[in-house]
Structure formats: C-alpha cells, structure tokens
Amino acid sequence: MSPIFRIVSPNFQGMGIGLLYGQSPASLRNGRPLGYPVQREMSELETNLAGLEKILLGGPKIAVLTGAGISAESGIPTFRGEDGLWKKHRAEELATPQAFYHAPALVWEWYDWRRGIIASKEPNAGHRALVRWERYFPHFVLITQNVDGLHRRAGSQNVLELHGNIWEVRCTREGTITENYESPLNPIPPLCPACGAMLRPNVVWFGESLPAETLEEAYAASASCDLMFVIGTSAFVQPAASLPLLAAERGVPIVEVNPQPTPLTASADFVFRGRAGDVLPLIDERLPAGSTGG
Ligand code: OAD
Fold this sequence. Notes:
There is one protein chain. This protein is an alpha/beta fold. The chain is built from twelve helices and eleven strands. The protein is elongated and about 55 Å long. It binds 2'-O-acetyl adenosine-5-diphosphoribose. The site of 2'-O-acetyl adenosine-5-diphosphoribose has 28 residues, from helix 3.
C-alpha cells in the first residue's frame, strides 16, 4: 500500500505549520496579509456570499470535506484546538494499532469516554445545512474525517467516513463490523458475541490504511466537483488534507469555513472566518426556497 493511503500526521500536531503561516506569497490572499482588519472582513463576508451565490445557483457538482470543527458547536472536543484532545492525550498511546495491542482496555476506556460525550450531544446548524444541500443539489458528496456519526444523525444520507465510525465495532478475529451504541460499554474491552474475540473500534488509527473504497470515492468526488467546501478541519492529517488540492489544481473554487487559518487557506477562493454553525446557514439562505426548512 502506498504511503498516501495511510493516515499520516507529522508528530501528531502538524509539523511545518510555520512555513505555511509565514509572510510568503502563499500566505497572501488577494494580495493582502491574512491578519486583515476585522471591519473590512465584514464587507468581505457580503462579497464572499454574493460570489458564492452566483456559483451555487449554477447548480455545481459539490464536494464537501468536514473535520472536527463542524461538531465543535455541538460540544464535541476537536483535536488540535486549545482544549483539543491531542493537547491532553497522547495520540501514540490511544490512536495507534500498537497502543491497542499493548493496552486494549486503556484504549477502549478512552473511546468509551468519547462515545459517552458524543451520545449526549446533538447535530448543529452546520450539520443541518449540509443535509439540505444534499437534498437540493443533484451532485453532492459529503466527505468527513469525523467518527462521531453526527452527519448521519442530522439526516445526511451519503457520508464518506474516511476515518471510520465510533459507533461501529470490528471483531479482531473475524473482521466483522457491527453497529454498537452501548454507552457505557460493559465489559471493557468488549467481546465479539459470535466468537468471543476482542472487538476494536472501527476507526482508522495513525499508521493504518483508510477504507479503500471510501477513499476512492472521496478522490473521485474531489477530482470531478465544480466547487469544494472545506469545513472545520486543520488540514494536517493526510490523505484527507490533500483532497481539496485535487480540486484546486483543476481551478475549482475552494470555500474554507474555519475561524482559524489553515495550510489550505492559501488555496481557497472564498474564506469564511467563522463558525460552521453560523456561516453555513448564511450560505444556505442564498439558495432558493426549497433547500431550506429541512
Ligand atoms: P482538528 O482538531 O485538527 O481541527 C479542527 C479545526 O476546526 C481547526 O482548524 C479549528 O480552527 C476549526 N474549528 C473549530 N471550531 C470550529 C467551528 N465552530 N466551525 C468551523 N471550524 C471550527 O480536527 P481535524 O482537522 O478534523 O484523526 O483532525 C483531523 C484528524 O486528526 C481527525 O479525524 C483525527 C485527528 O487525529 C484520527 O484520530 C485518526
């Protein structure tokens, strides 16, 4: 398997960020530095919305890549923010096959804790806007790095879950995948009801391959869309972070929705520096009635 199919995040925090946030030409958008005065950003919001509206009304083929940021307003911690999971926990000890081999109970306790948090939360306005867009646009593909299942709970039908789903378990002996919503889990680690072997979370850990078919569909969508949204991801983890580049290389407009700059900002044509739950409904309002009210 080529390395591009494996999940990679340099030192789990994102090495090389300084290069991309510097004052190199890549950090200039429309010839201005990223740290632009807030007042001027207000009118840029209107310009962005108007420009995007024109494209949306043309009925483009849309691909969307989401990350933990879209679930942040639901109360689910992100990975690399100030209160991010990787600030308090070491990915090497919790999200690698080696960690699971050495300490399956510890790994499962962490996933059990996360499942408990997610179970108590609801999808937000950002997730709901994407449900409406799926119904409105004939060509719409939603790709997510999130394992929380909130897109589906909101009502999205076709979701490409690149990193798996925390509500699925996989038998370590037979490979059988089943849904499991028990929270808290008992026992930990949970055992396969069919063969008694240990179950593992059906998520992708660092160093593991992404589900091949899902990744292929995500590449195909990114390589054929006319417009790509990148919402709530720090764009540090490969191969997900390279998907928008496939679109950008073809001259396809990229829309970034994120309160913070990312390595993809320099490739974005529309940058919305805001929260997904605020920005996506504003974009949604620009669509003719019929996409709304879902
Ligand atoms: P990160 O935690 O790395 O990044 C979250 C991004 O969301 C940041 O860029 C934030 O600025 C942004 N953000 C925060 N609140 C937001 C909001 N309300 N609206 C929009 N954006 C917001 O999460 P991911 O990029 O998803 O993988 O991380 C990718 C992968 O790294 C995860 O799937 C996970 C992690 O390690 C594995 O565990 C395999």
